[in-house]
Specification:
By secondary structure, the protein is α+β, with helices and mostly antiparallel strands. Helix content is 21%, strand content 38%. Helix 3 links the parallel strand 4 and strand 5. The protein is globular. The relative contact order is 0.32.
Length: 138
């Protein structure tokens, strides 16, 4: 006999932030370089991080959020190359650390969408602060 436990969980959106980055993030495979002395951020990774942080600082002037977060990332790529969707969120999430939230460990829900062959590169980011009031069916 299979016993299924259900928990009540109600999540309430407290605030919503929308950001737009006018470039595609690098793959997590190209952000880091492994060397004998350790792991370092690549030139491509540093350039994306710098540009993304500049855009974020212009678009969001508030203090970093401190609560639990729900993040939706829409990735737009100008060409139709094969890409693993999960290789592109790390650079985006790391760039928001210290600006939008204190640490990316605050993210409890992450939703990714990929659009290819759009004719342009862009990232749209939606961040909701969530609070658990009581449990709902999960």
């Amino acid at each position: 006999m299979l016993i299924v436990r259900s928990y009540l969980r109600k999540i309430k959106a407290v605030s919503m932030i929308k950001l737009e980055l006018p470039m595609a993030p690098p793959s997590v495979n190209t952000i880091w370089i492994n060397k004998p002395k350790g792991r370092f951020k690549s030139v491509k990774g540093r350039e994306f991080d710098k540009r993304a942080k500049q855009e974020i600082a212009i678009q969001y002037l508030g203090k970093p959020l401190r609560g639990k977060l729900k993040v939706k990332i829409k990735l737009f790529f100008k060409d139709n190359r094969k890409r693993d969707i999960d290789n592109y969120n790390k650079g985006v999430l790391d760039a928001m650390t210290g600006f939008i939230y204190e640490d990316d460990s605050q993210i409890d829900e992450l939703f990714l969408v990929k659009k290819i062959n759009c004719g342009f590169d862009k990232v749209e980011i939606f961040i909701d602060e969530i609070s658990e009031e009581k449990m709902t069916l999960f």
